[in-house]
Design brief:
It is built from 2 helices and 34 strands. By secondary structure, the protein is mostly beta strands. The strands form 8 sheets. Strands 1, 3, 4, 6, 11, 12, 13 and 15 form an 8-stranded antiparallel beta sheet that branches. It has a 7-stranded antiparallel beta sheet with strand order 2-5-14-7-8-9-10, with no helix packed on it.
C-alpha cells in the first residue's frame, strides 16, 4: 500500500494497512458505535487527530471514508493536509457557499471540487480522487463534481502537518461528529472502485477477541479462522500480523504449526481479514497451549525400594505406602522423565505429578516430593555395592527444597480408578535446576516423605 493508510477506528488510531501511519489522538476523542464496528467521535471543541505527512506525498491521490456530521458552523474540516494556509489540501462539510468542498492550493489560486451540501445527522460516504489534471468528488459512491483543470498535485503542497477534524486556519471550528473507515491512497480510485467501497461493508470478525481450540506443546496444530469473519467484497484473505512464530495463518484462514516448549500458556496473535476492495478488519486471537504431558515408558525410568534395600525395576504398581509385608516401614519410589524438550536456560514455572490409585486404604497418605539436583538424571539401576545402613540404592543428590504434599485423602473403596493429584507447584519450589534434559523425582510415602 506504500504511502497509504486505513483507519478503522475500532478502539484506536492504528493504521490497519500496517504502513506505520498511526494517527495521534488529541484532546479526548471517544470510540462509539460506528457505521461498521466502532467510530471515533470528535466533540467540536478540543478533539482532532494528526497523521503523518507522507499521506499527501504522491502525485495521484485519493481519500474515502464515512462521516457523520452533527452540523454547526462553516469551515469545519474532515481533513486538512499541508504546510501552511496557502499550501494545503482539505475537505470541508460546508464552505461559506454552503457546499461540500475539496480544495487544493500551492501558494496561488485554489483549485476546487464543490458538491451538494453534506447532510446532517446521517452517515455519509465521501471520496476524493486525483489523477493527472482530473479531480473527482463523490457522495455515497456517486461522482457529484469533476474538475479537469486541477494542475496541482498533493505532493506539490509539501505537506508537513496533516490533521483529521482540524483546519490549518486557527479561526475555523473543529469538526463535530464521527469518522469511520477512513482510507488514504497514494493512487487514484476509479468510479467503480469508489462505488464498490461504498456498497460493500468491510469484512468483520465476529468479535474483537477470538478463541481458537487449545494446542499442546510438541503436537501439530490445525484449526481455522474461516467462519469467524463475514462481510466484505469477494473472497476473504486472512493473515497474521503479530504473535509467536510457531503459528502460521494461511490465506484461506488455516491455522497450522507446532508449539514449542517455551510456548506454554495463553498465546496471543493479531490476525487480519482483507477483502478484494482492500477493506480489512483485525482481531486478537487467543490459543491456550497446554504444557508437556510425559509418561513413564521404560523399566529403567521407575523403581521402588522398601527400607530393606531391594530395588524392584519391574513392579507393575508403584506403592506409595508403608510396606506392611516387610514391616520395614516407608518405601521409596523414583520416577525419571526422559527427553523433556526444554531449551537450555528455561525455567519450569509449574508442574504437576498425577498418580492413579489401583487400591484404597482407610487413612490419609502424606507425601514429600523432592527433585534430583541434576540437569540430566541417570537411569535407575541396581547397585552392585552391599547396602549400607540408611543408604538407599535410590538415594541421589536432591535439591535443597522439598514440597510437602498432604495429607492426600484416601480413595473410596469402590473407586479403584480414582485419581489423586500431588505435586502442583513442584517447579516453583524445585524445578529451577531442570533445564535441558531430565527431571528426576524420588518419592517416599505414607505418613512420611516423597523425596
Amino acid at each position: 500500500m506504500g504511502t497509504s493508510a486505513r483507519y478503522a477506528f475500532d478502539g484506536d488510531g492504528h493504521d490497519g494497512w500496517n504502513n506505520g501511519f498511526d494517527a495521534l489522538l488529541v484532546g479526548a476523542p471517544r470510540f462509539v458505535p460506528g457505521k461498521f464496528g466502532q467510530a471515533i467521535a470528535l466533540n467540536g471543541t478540543t478533539d482532532y487527530l494528526q497523521v503523518p505527512p507522507r499521506l499527501a506525498s504522491s502525485a495521484e491521490w485519493a481519500f474515502a471514508g464515512w462521516v457523520f456530521w452533527n452540523g454547526g458552523a462553516n469551515w469545519q474540516r474532515v481533513f486538512d493536509f499541508g504546510f501552511d494556509t496557502s499550501h494545503h489540501l482539505f475537505l470541508t462539510p460546508k464552505s461559506s457557499a454552503g457546499t461540500l468542498r475539496f480544495g487544493i492550493e500551492n501558494g496561488g489560486s485554489q483549485q476546487q471540487l464543490n458538491g451538494p451540501a453534506m447532510p446532517v445527522g446521517v452517515w455519509t460516504h465521501l471520496a476524493v480522487s486525483i489523477s493527472g489534471n482530473t479531480g473527482k468528488l463523490f457522495i455515497n459512491g456517486v461522482p457529484v463534481a469533476t474538475n479537469t483543470a486541477m494542475t496541482i498535485n498533493p505532493v506539490d503542497v509539501g505537506a508537513k502537518f496533516n490533521y483529521l477534524g482540524k483546519s490549518r486556519f486557527t479561526a475555523d471550528p473543529l469538526f463535530n461528529g464521527r469518522f469511520d473507515d477512513f482510507r488514504f491512497f497514494s493512487s487514484a480510485l476509479s468510479d467503480a472502485h469508489v462505488a464498490a467501497i461504498y456498497s460493500s461493508p468491510p469484512p468483520q470478525f465476529i468479535a474483537r477477541t477470538l478463541t481458537a481450540p487449545d494446542a499442546a506443546i510438541g503436537q501439530p496444530y490445525n484449526a481455522t479462522l474461516a467462519g469467524l469473519a463475514g462481510g466484505g467484497a469477494g473472497a476473504l484473505t486472512f493473515s497474521k500480523m503479530d504473535g509467536p512464530a510457531w503459528l502460521g495463518v494461511a490465506a484461506d484462514g488455516s491455522l497450522t504449526g507446532t508449539p514449542g516448549a517455551t510456548n506454554g500458556g495463553l498465546n496471543r496473535f493479531l490476525v487480519r481479514v482483507t477483502d478484494t476492495n482492500g477493506s480489512l478488519h483485525t482481531a486478537m486471537l487467543h490459543i491456550n497451549v497446554s504444557g508437556l504431558t510425559l509418561s513413564i515408558g521404560s523399566s529403567a525410568d521407575d523403581a521402588e525400594e522398601p527400607a530393606t534395600g531391594t530395588m524392584n525395576l519391574t513392579s507393575t504398581d508403584l506403592e506409595l505406602v508403608n510396606d506392611p509385608g516387610t514391616g520395614a516401614g516407608d518405601q521409596i519410589v523414583g520416577l525419571r522423565f526422559p527427553d523433556v524438550p526444554i531449551p537450555p536456560g528455561a525455567i519450569i514455572r509449574q508442574a504437576t505429578i498425577q498418580f492413579t490409585a489401583d487400591e484404597s486404604q482407610s487413612e490419609p497418605t502424606v507425601l514429600e516430593i523432592a527433585a534430583e539436583a541434576a540437569d540430566d538424571a541417570a537411569v535407575h539401576h541396581r547397585s552392585l555395592q552391599p547396602q549400607q545402613a540408611g543408604a538407599h540404592r535410590l538415594a541421589r543428590a536432591l535439591a535443597a527444597a522439598a514440597l510437602d504434599r498432604g495429607p492426600v485423602k484416601p480413595q473410596p473403596t469402590h473407586a479403584e480408578s480414582g485419581r489423586a493429584g500431588a505435586g502442583s507447584g513442584v517447579a516453583a519450589r524445585l524445578g529451577q535446576r531442570q533445564r535441558a534434559g531430565v527431571p528426576h523425582l524420588r518419592h517416599r510415602p505414607p505418613h512420611s516423605r516423597l523425596v
